[in-house]
Amino acid sequence: MMLTHLNSPVFSRQSSIGLRLEDIKTRPEETMRRLCDYLGIEEAPSLYESTMQGLQWWGDPSSSLFGRSQTDYDHTTDPTGKAVGTFFSSKDQFILGTLFYPLSSRFGYVETDGEQFKRDLSEVRPLLDKPLDFEETLAKEFPPDYPDLQVTGAFKHLRAVLIAVWSVLDDCGTYPNLLKSLPER
Predict the structure, then answer these.
(1) CA neighbor of 12 nearest in space, from 160, 177, 174
(2) For residue range 72-121, what is the model confidence (pLDDT) as tens digits?
(3) How far is CA 145 from CA 20, 60, 128, 158, in A?
(4) Selected residue with higher pLDDT from 69 and 50
(5) What is the pLDDT of residue 14?
(6) What CA–CA distance (Å, rounded) separates 98 from 117?
(7) Which residue in 1, 42, 63, 120 is a FRET match for 93, CA 20 to 30 A apart?
(8) Sign (positive/negative) of CA torsion 117, 119, 121, 124?
(9) How far is C-alpha 28 from the geometric centre of its chain's CA atoms?
């Protein structure tokens, strides 16, 4: 789960940066040039090929693009362009958006508003003890002999993760070891 990796000490102890997938897809030349500058390497044509060790990369099998070559960005078929709300309810989005806020703010997905973040954080905490809406939806598909959602290991594990990352944010106001973004040129 990505939330458990947002505060990895590796990010503060080693030279590391993150970049947005959509920047690679929508502005590949500019993004790859910035990455090459950061890494101190020369730009090469292979950076623009969907290959690994000379083999064609077909993507993640769960992706709608699996098995298809995508040489040009097409927002109509790109999974990153899916409509918001197709899986997570507005409540789920509020909770996850709050927990991801430091990352979203750093990478330019949301406007930075520290005071609103503090208010949202305090509103989110009581919601973490209950199932998220997507969990309730998935639980409707459980077989009749399956245990209730709230006694499953998956439910308990997710609660532990959500509460742990909330606690870090409440104590520190951010993830102290949060990945930095690729510097602008």
Answers:
(1) 177
(2) 556 666 655 666 667 899 999 999 999 999 999 999 999 999 999 999 99
(3) 43, 32, 26, 22
(4) 50
(5) 85
(6) 7
(7) 63
(8) negative
(9) 20
Comparing 181 with 70, the larger pLDDT belongs to 181
pLDDT for 59 beyond 80: no
CB proximity list for 79: less than 8 A, separation 6 or greater: 63, 64, 65
The sign of the torsion formed by the CA atoms of 70, 74, 76, 81 equals positive
Q: Residues 103, 20: contact at Cβ < 8 Å?
A: no
* 3-state helix/strand/coil string of the chain: CHHHHCCCCHHHHCCCEECCHHHHHHCHHHHHHHHHHHHCCCCCHHHHCCEECCEECCCCCCCCCCCCCCCCCCCCCCHHHCCCCCCCCHHHHHHHHHHCHHHHHHCCCCCCCHHHHHHHHHHHHHHHHCCCHHHHHHHCCCCCCCCCHHHCHHHHHHHHHHHHHHHHHHHHCCCCCCCEECCCC
Q: What is the dihedral of CA 144, 146, 151, 157, to 10 degrees?
A: -130
Chain-centroid distance, C-alpha 105 = 12
Lookup result for tokens 């959602």: 149
pTM, rounded to two decimals:
0.79
**pLDDT for residue 71 is more than 80:** no
How far apart are alpha carbons 145 and 126 in whole angstroms? 30
